[in-house]
């Protein structure tokens, strides 16, 4: 993503504008407070309202003094933290402001930095004292302070947070987003394509770019009157950002009002709040986790990416952090970013914009990834950076005693559903899921799905084409989210970046990638919510592969769509030349099925279906790459096709250049019996035996054997899993 930083008026550097401190050294009291709130709180957004304005009677806050904001009439007694936009104005000298819970020691951190005469806001998420009060401390000179309440956190009912890699949802400099905002103009920001219908609030980074005159910007829910608050204050010619957490209108829209002159606006969406799933919030006593002035590495330099170790003593299963970033006296105008590295993200999400010589702060909602460290970036010049931890979003480990989902293998796309760092070891229990009846994963195992006994489908992992089906696209979800609008589901299937569900009424629904007709709607557009596959009713089974989707009807007919279907159809068409099928499977190319006589058939594109020789009494089939498998009624597994990577399970290694790397005739996989189910994906094969154990072989990315990439040439028991009732190629259902 290109970044635009126009020249701005130089500002005087603040000396001592952020309190000096070393790297993180949390106290025992801080650790105890974090542990006490391990289960977290949920969010209740409110209509934006001003709760403090020292210009109205109280007078400015003096040097070394604090003003107390009493929120007892605004938030419940159970509130643990509040979200405030704190604005400083008319400062008589350079200063900083610190927010903290009333009745607690003032931390060695800062939230807001000001030069003399400036007006600047910053979003503050801060714990409240036992009396529901917050203190705002001013370091030097006098300053007027304003505070606008956006919502509060408390245990009980409310909304939970789902973070993702920031994405641009508004940029008036670019085509398609509308023109520059004029004086007194309100712009409607429609987020219905970016968040699910259940979302009640969002967090976004709002940047004002080179306004023609001094102005302010207000964000508020559509369908309501504009409140007397502000979220962003802009001097002429400046580039400034402020994080905004704001309630959504019923139509998932926001209003953005510009007070004076003309200004461009950019908004980067960081996450949404909704009831029923996501992460809860744990406020922490503010503590400094980075200060480049105190370290040995010095300031960030132009174009440099520097690791920021994940802060210690976080609750289990963290998904996002709130970090207050303060940039100090850059040598050139610049922007700074903090993010978890994501190779699917073009460019660096900006979190803080700075003029040359300026010291300023902005709160950042940072989505955590599977790798332990965050990345810091500065675009131009040399800039010192301070980061203060304000809170953590995390998912409590809910109890599951029956029909739990487990996953194994790498976690570089949050595939394990645990919000834990990458772990190639023992199986991890997927958080917040119970009553699971079936599992599925896409070809690479990057997105995974669970069907629950209540007929709902849940998904986690990669979402770059909307394959989570939750109403948004991009990034990942570390924990399961519901596939929107699906009930009464009896079966699920997946391909590459596309998923399918069969409902009890016999209809088939699809979501994710659609560029090869995989959605079965006749359109090549992707969909981040389920859409009904055209013309299918009374379907009894579904299956899918990378280039094909299949449906079985009560008369045994097979209908297919996608790249490898007859005529490469983008809507379901019948596969001709097949007897009545009882079982179907999608392959790496084409489809496979078993007829009522237990004979296996294969087909691809417009070629006539053909029988697989030498197989009878087959009950199930599976494929991966160009290797194929059949389970027979006697519980044995037979394999044929490509031998490489040990995929035939016969203990033999086959080099790529050897001509006999392909076996035409099915042969039994040695040492396997009592097999009830089979699954295969991305070069690995797994079977579920009648004793509840899971066995696997083939290409290995930690799927079969931990801490190695070596191929597994013969069936091996997977991680000592026991009591399993269902499997996928990367997980199992077990007590």
From TrEMBL:
Residues 293-313 are annotated as: Disordered. It comes from the Bacteria. Keywords: Signal. One of its GO terms (cellular component) is cytoplasm. InterPro entries: Ran_GTPase-activating, RCC1/BLIP-II, Reg_chr_condens. Residues 1-20 form the signal peptide. GO terms for molecular function: guanyl-nucleotide exchange factor activity. The keyword rRNA-binding does not apply. This is Alpha-tubulin suppressor-like RCC1 family protein. It comes from Actinophytocola algeriensis.
